[in-house]
Specification:
Strand content: 5-15%
CATH superfamily: P-loop containing nucleotide triphosphate hydrolases
Helix content: 40-55%
Oligomer: single chain
Radius of gyration: 16 Å
Number of domains: 1
CATH architecture: 3-Layer(aba) Sandwich
Number of strands: 5
Order of helices and strands: EHEHHHEHEHHEH
Number of helices: 8
Length: 183
């Protein structure tokens, strides 16, 4: 709970490679928040469908039932009476009472991070240029889906309570900034 005695409910979205999962892990370990990661669910589904993450995003463009299932579950999770952080592109939309955070990052830094991150066969890259191209492709695919399906644009700053550029700061600094703004 925060200093006002209210449950902590944070939605974190942002650029691919901005450190969302790492920041969420830090918040879990240091502030006791339960973490729900839609990215992990999507990577698991991509593996199940035997696709890399970009191919799976393109597949989801024409198979809206996958987004609907994920988003319904996300909304249910957001109603739980617990301290939580939601690592999801759409949590800010489906959990409107959350503290909404957007993490941005420069593309070169994002590509270096995802190459280093070792996310498995569904999200691997042969070079920095390939990583940058696929990150741009994936972001475009996701934004197109959300604008088409829900009429919302995840990249608009006015959707968020806090925006942080993570390019040159540590996950610890990002997490502490988030918690200081909530409290």
């Amino acid at each position: 709970m925060n200093q006002a005695g209210k449950r902590i409910k944070i939605s974190v979205t942002g650029d691919l490679g901005s450190g969302k999962s790492t920041v969420c892990r830090y918040l879990k370990e240091n502030f006791g928040l339960n973490v729900y990661s839609i990215g992990l669910i999507q990577r698991s589904l991509a593996e199940k469908y035997n696709m890399d993450i970009c191919a799976f995003n393109r597949y989801m463009e024409t198979h809206s039932e996958i987004d609907e299932e994920i988003d319904t579950e996300l909304a249910k999770i957001g109603k739980r009476d617990e301290d939580m952080i939601l690592d999801s592109r759409m949590a800010w939309h489906f959990v409107p009472d959350s503290f909404k955070v957007y993490l941005s990052v420069q593309l070169d830094a994002a590509a270096q991070r995802v190459i280093r991150d070792q996310r498995g066969a569904v999200e691997s890259y042969a070079s920095l240029d390939e990583a940058k191209n696929r990150l741009v492709e994936r972001k475009h695919s996701e934004n197109l889906r959300y604008i088409t399906k829900y009429g919302v644009d995840c990249s608009k700053p006015e959707n968020y309570d806090l925006t942080i550029d993570t390019t040159d700061i540590s996950p610890e600094q990002v997490a502490k900034t988030i918690m200081s703004k909530i409290n």
